[in-house]
Amino acid sequence: MKKLLSIFAISIVTYGALHAQSNFTMTYSMGFASGDLADFISQPSFRGATIEFRKMVNPNIGVGMTFGWNTFYEEISRESYTAGSSTLTGKQFRYSNNFPILLAGDYYLSPGEKFNPFVGLGIGTIYTRRNTDMNLYTVEQEAWNFALQPEVGFLYSLTDGAAIIVAGRFNQGFKAGNELDSAQSYFTLNVGFSFANN
Amino acid sequence: MPVVLLSCYPAGPDYVEDLDVTYTTFDNKFDFQTRSTYAMPDRIVVDVEIDDGDTTYIYMKDVFADPILAAIDDNLQSLGWEKVDISDQPDMLVTPAGIKSTTYFYSYWYDWWYGGWYGGYWGWYYPPYYTVSSYTTGSMIVTMSDPNVDDDSPIGESQTAWVMAANGLFTGNYDLGRVTKAIDEAFDQSPYLKLN
Fold this sequence. Notes:
With 198 residues, chain A is mainly beta. Helix content of chain A is 12%, strand content 70%.
């Protein structure tokens, strides 16, 4: 993992020096939980955002970093929970804050065109902080999951330097040996703006 | 952007009732089916003041205490329990309390009440996993214990067989409905108390 990160970092620096063009992207991110996260919170998340940087290696390939934040939330109606000889009845307020931190690469199919579809892959980690609140107490569980984030999307050019970006991503955080042991995964639909710096 | 994101953060509970929780736990080695009678004080203590060796008990006003005691009686009797006088050697003692502060007053008031009335000394203790410090101010606590098994204990006190705790019910707008609802819930989630 460390070796992989080093290779990515060196690639970015090297290619960044050779090719000045870069992109800065901000998106609004809607999240749809799957797997263990969906078992915990079934409601979609409309609270999320990403910030992304890409250095263009050549007109077709950009490499860089993606930082994201998605907050999932659900209020569970009054229910009873039993563990051993103890039972607790009450409302639960469930939160999952997920922060993907990824090295990412995109392949652009139609560079220079108004409509420029792309596919990409991010690799890194997702930090998850899960809170289950009842009464004044919270149970907090954390995990740093090794993560992959495949994506498909397109850029739609507005002006020479600005474009609308729409991307669908699957955030797969693999099972981690942390407090929160299970894999954490969710889809996101990202819509935002991308700015090119020539 | 962080400000915008923070302003979108989910708010959580909207009303104080959203925080109401009802907790019950029991000693799974205790056989409730071999018991059938209980005694309960007709007042609820909320605090104990000790000044210069003089002990003063602070009681909940009857207008609040009566519906709470009635709710406990109704639930226990619908589960098959028979209420008897403290002098009739009940199988179980039921002890309701409202926690005004974090003062641990159980050993003062209830030992006095049961001991003073009956002429003997009865006491009981919480098993280690019932920590009184975890009950917030305004909590309603009810315990059930068998005073007749204190000889089985190395410290001469019976272990509490059943505990209910409902946090924070005496805060906010003093809605007694929240308290009686919690009592109903506590017995609903304790089916092992039903006598055959």
